[in-house]
Amino acid sequence: MEIIMTIINGLSIGGTYAMIALGYTMVYGIAKMLNFAHGDIIMVGGYTIVLFFPISPIVGIIASVIFCVTVGIVVERCAYKPLRGASPLAVLITAIGVSKLLQSTAQSLPFIGSKPKGITYNFGNLQIGSVSISVLTLITILCSIAVMVGLTLFVKYTKTGRAMIAVSEDRGAAQLMGINVNFIIMITFIIGSALAAVAGVFLVFKIQDVGTTFGAMPGIKAFAAAVIGGIGSIPGAMAGGLVLGFIEAICGMVPALSPYTDAIEFAILILVLLVKPTGFLGKKRREKV
Amino acid sequence: MALLEVKNLDVHYGVIQAIKDISFEVNEGEIVTLIGANGAGKTTTMQSIMGLIHPSHGEIYYDGQKINGIPSHKIVKLGMTQVPEGRRIFSELTVYENLLMGAYTRKDKDGIEKDFADIYALFPRLEERKNQIAGTLSGGEQQMLAMGRAIMSRPKLLMLDEPSMGLSPLLVDQVFEIIKHFHEIGTTILLVEQNANKSLAISDRAYVLENGKIVLTGTGKELLTSEEIKKAYLGG
């Protein structure tokens, strides 16, 4: 029984991390930057659902995705695009600045403020045999599986998806194919932000209480997941997310371990970096001049 | 009117001037070669034409239209592309997908189908390996793929940057045969090569680059027999 629950929890937590990690890994692979404001997009998505939920849950979810995508596009156009070709350090600092900007903007908005907000909504439980699973957990698992399958198919079988791989591998050669690199980067930010919005919605329902920095912890863990899986690799982000999810689920089941969950997760990150610095599925790329 | 015209081009990398006041032209239907040693500025010139590097001074015209300042992907749409130095195929994509990337700007499905057939006829190896990940191909096969990929965009002007580099003599011959074939089907060619012998033999005209400057120009035949060229590039 406990094993089944652990697996289900692992899939649900891991699926959420994977959705966020995909945003990190795709932006890193394609735009060659670490978007440290990605965690704050989760927060934007979370607050949007909190504010719109009273109108209707569906409206809330749609608003959340639309608003996150908009913020993602604006951030990319205004903060990152002007720095294309600048030193990676300048881009990194800018991303941290954007992160702080999003957090403090949220705090200064009167309808958000500095006090945590939340939604309490009971999705109910599903009884399968002797196992009782929360419907929210099931939706999270199904949704993250759909996202991962959908994204894999998109990248493999659409023209834009293949162009994303091409740009991530060799931006110059991709341009010689007639690929508009700025457009592909924009698409990447749109997909990443939409996934962060969905993850934000699930997190809000799960933790029921959000502050303006609530995206930071899942954001940093998903980043760790992306690195463990091999940053830049889409299947890697999925694998890394699931690994962290299962670790968290197992720690949650063992009372002696549960206070150390975060420490164990980051210790594993360090371990992976020591043994295989490129992550599970990451590749060594030769640098182009 | 020249298909491609480069006028008074200067390119700087920081304070270093890589290209010094270069002017040359490529007429429709020609094969033109830029020869020169390593570091002479051949690749820089090619990349400036494609908009991958921004020149500090000078103009580049394609078909009468000024193209410097236009983003690379739009230059490709105008009808020119480049086989870059070192092939730079997409090693994570399959052979088929690489060729498909070459046709990225095209929407004519039937034409693309036909060009696939043509390319597979020209490079049977690529058809045999069409579902193989391109990174697993040999160097020669990768060069064929890079050339096939470029021709998939049906360019009016095809530029090739050192296509024979690092290949065995047999493969070098094959590469030059393919360039001749592309020329015969109506493609104007701008070639950059260190292999002066082979490239001059197939060229209508050529320019010799030294330290970022054009120091000599003439027809392929003239340069092949020129004493200076013999000494510097043809090994005696």
Structure description:
The complex is a heterodimer of chains A (289) and B (236). Chain A has 289 residues and is an all-alpha fold. Chain A has a domain at 2-100 and 126-214. Helices cover 71% and strands 3% of the residues of chain A. Chain A has eleven helices and two strands. A two-stranded antiparallel sheet of chain A has the order 1-2. In chain A, strand 1 and strand 2 form a beta hairpin. The model of chain A has no long low-confidence stretch (mean pLDDT 93). Chain B has a domain at 4-88 and 155-233: P-loop containing nucleotide triphosphate hydrolases (Rossmann fold, 3-Layer(aba) Sandwich), CATH 3.40.50. Chain B is 39% helix and 27% strand. Chain B has ten helices and ten strands. The longest helix of chain B has 16 residues, at 169-184. The radius of gyration of chain B is 17 Å and the shape is globular. The A-B interface holds A 159, 162-163, 165-166, 169-170, 172-181, 288 and B 50-52, 71-73, 76-77, 81-82, 84, 88-93, 97, 100-102, 104-105, 149-150, 153.
Quick summary of this structure?
Chain A is built from 11 helices and 2 strands. Chain A is mostly helical and 289 residues long. The longest helix of chain B is centred in the last third of the chain and has 16 residues.
Helix content of chain B: 25-40%
CATH hierarchy, class of the domain at 4-88 and 155-233 in chain B = Alpha Beta
How many distinct helices of chain A? 11
What share of residues are in beta strands of chain B? 25-35%
